[in-house]
Specification:
heterodimer, A: 102 residues, mainly alpha, 5 helices, 79% helix, B: 495 residues, alpha/beta, Rossmann fold, 2 domains, seven-stranded parallel beta sheet, 7% strand, disordered N terminus
Chain lengths: 102, 495
């Protein structure tokens, strides 16, 4: 119990961020018209590609002789990049079509 | 050791220029994500919002590569060749597949990308666990002062990231397969219970692993269980509900990414992940609302394609439907005052949006008022039809949302349904036994005539019969939507 409380105290910054972000996330898209559901989902999909940063850190920290870490990290970087790049490009393509109207 | 973030205050801070710059990069990243999402939810700014978020992502990624330092050893990252190689390969694959995919296959593409993100999160967890299990082993041997309990929070985060990431990956792959028709609905009796048991075992194993991090093999059991759970979780859910599932898995991946943020004390991963987790959950609920169903209902699935119990029995001997010839259809439409087009998935698969616009133009030239009635979940994703018709240059003014359209059907002479089925099924209003009962529909039966274009009499995605097709005012026009529309154009022109 004590260690849990200690852990919460030590990580209070992070916990505050989580709580605030939950509300920001809900607030920010609260009024989205149904027309934009698909592009918004796709855009959010690209944003969670931020997990790529974790993959880069894993890769960059791996000792050069740790082949397991390097292989998995390399794969993670590739997959993460596909998520980010593909996600943003697809979203842009969807939204491009909305823009043509004057 | 990589434990600094979770041990918190004790870690010595790095105060170099590079580190401060990285903080700024991450700050920019977090702000652009929030701003980007905000702009994405408004039609006027959506495209810019996407670019803003992409810009922030680029800054955060480049900052990480060049400025990141290990919090304890202060070492820069290395293995640049691998990192850039991965970025290059992933970038090329991502761009090419995103550029080449047809507008109609967008939903599966999103699902696929989402799966990649989930897999990425799961892989990070695997590597980090290997890392930490070495430290655990080392601390056991040296009998050092650090007790195992120090590792527990980190292991917990790693395991959560692994479970959520794997479920999201496996689920997205199945959703992708379902949307492009490679995977069929599959369920067995008691599947929901089985799934819950599976999940309970995984959580039990995870708890045990957190208590005793030396049980390395458990991690792989958890990975396996999570993957199987992801597959079985999506398997029984009907294709019509896939958008909701993808949106839910999308928010899962967000949470998995946030776990990475916890692990590395990385604020941009944390904000980005939680932001998507929260926004994605809300979006999922909004989508469910558009179908007038609860999330639980979607997930536990009264929709399951193989369960055609009540619906099938009541409607088998519905009588006959009548067909209409192309020239008759063309005639009826050109002499109508108002034609309402109801696009559905059939239009999307046939890539018929341009031909549809063509027909609209020809009819309009003849003085017919043509409008489109867009059901919020027509196609495979909310907004799918709007995107498609926008691609074909159809003006925004003639696209009616469901409520507006339902007001106008009374004054409509001809409704032309192009490959839509469940969204115009009156059973949703009249038949409490129907699995889609309660879903708001386009009330096309209020119009004077209904022409339905379908490829065959096969039921739609919900797997149920549609009474509408057997009503006296309805006539069927069989064939591929594009072919039929082309012929209709020619016929109408000739009149």
């Amino acid at each position: 119990m004590h260690s849990l409380l200690q852990w919460i105290t030590n990580n209070q910054q992070i916990i505050y961020i989580v709580i605030l972000m939950v509300f920001v996330g809900i607030e920010v898209i609260g009024r989205v018209p149904s027309v934009l559901h698909t592009p918004l989902m796709s855009g959010a999909n690209a944003i969670h590609g931020v997990v790529i940063i974790g993959a880069i850190i894993v890769m960059g920290k791996a000792e050069t002789d740790n082949y397991l870490a390097i292989t998995l990290g390399f794969l993670a970087v590739i997959l993460g990049t596909i998520n980010v790049v593909g996600g943003f490009v697809v979203t842009d393509r969807m939204l491009e079509m909305f823009k043509k109207k004057k | 050791m990589s434990l600094a973030p979770l041990r918190g205050i004790g870690a010595n801070k790095i105060n170099t220029m590079g580190h401060n710059l990285l903080t700024i990069c991450y700050l920019i990243g977090s702000i652009t994500f929030i701003l980007g999402l905000k702009m994405l939810s408004n039609p006027a700014t959506a495209r810019k919002g996407n670019l803003v978020a992409a810009f922030g992502m680029t800054v955060a990624i480049l900052g990480t590569i060049f400025l990141y330092r290990n919090e304890e050893t202060h070492a820069h990252l290395h293995n640049f060749l691998w990192i850039f190689g991965g970025l290059l390969i992933g970038g090329i694959i991502g761009t090419l597949s995103a550029k080449k995919v047809k507008m109609t296959s967008m939903p599966e593409m999103v699902s696929l990308f989402n799966g990649m993100g989930g897999a990425c999160a799961a892989l990070i967890s695997l590597v980090e666990f290997n890392h930490i299990s070495k430290e655990v082993a080392a601390s056991e041997i040296s009998m050092s002062l650090i007790s195992i309990s120090v590792f527990r929070p980190t292991v917990l985060i790693i395991v959560i990231g692994l479970i959520i990431g794997s479920v999201s990956f496996a689920g997205s792959m199945i959703a992708w397969g379902k949307l492009n028709g490679k995977v069929k609905d599959y369920s067995f009796t008691g599947q929901n219970v089985f799934n819950l048991i599976l999940l309970a075992i995984a959580i039990g194993a995870a708890t045990y692993l957190v208590i005793d991090p030396t049980q390395t093999y458990l991690l792989y059991c958890i990975l396996g269980l999570a993957l199987v759970y992801g597959i079985l979780f999506v398997m029984p859910i009907g294709g019509a509900d896939m958008p909701v599932v993808i949106s839910l898995l999308n928010s899962f991946t967000g949470v998995a990414a946030a776990c990475g943020g916890f692990l590395y004390n990385n604020k941009v991963m944390l904000t980005g992940g939680i932001l998507v987790g929260a926004a994605g959950t809300l979006l999922t609920i909004l989508m469910c609302k558009a179908m007038n169903r609860s999330l639980v209902n979607v997930l536990v699935g009264s929709f399951g394609g193989s369960k055609n119990t009540a619906a099938g029995a009541g409607t088998t001997d519905q009588g006959t439907y009548k067909e209409i010839s192309l020239s008759d259809a063309a005639m009826v439409m050109s002499y109508a005052n108002k034609v309402m087009i109801v696009p559905g998935y059939g239009l999307a698969v046939a890539q018929a949006q341009h031909t549809c616009h063509e027909l609209e133009k020809i009819l309009t030239e003849k003085g017919v008022e043509v409008k489109y009635a867009i059901h919020p979940v027509a196609g495979r994703m909310p907004g799918h039809m709007n995107v498609l018709l926008a691609e074909a240059d159809v003006s925004y003014d003639v696209l009616l949302e469901m409520e507006q359209a339902n007001d106008e059907f009374k004054t409509t002479d001809v409704v032309l349904i192009l490959g839509a089925n469940d969204v115009v099924n009156p059973a949703a209003k009249n038949d409490p036994a129907s699995p889609i009962y309660g879903m708001p529909i386009l009330e096309v039966e209020q119009a004077k005539n209904v022409i339905v274009n379908k490829r065959s009499m096969k039921p739609g995605y919900a797997g149920i019969e549609n009474d509408l097709f057997f009503q006296p005012k309805t006539s069927m026009l069989f064939g591929d939507a594009k072919k039929v529309l082309q012929d209709l154009c020619a016929e109408v022109k000739a009149i």
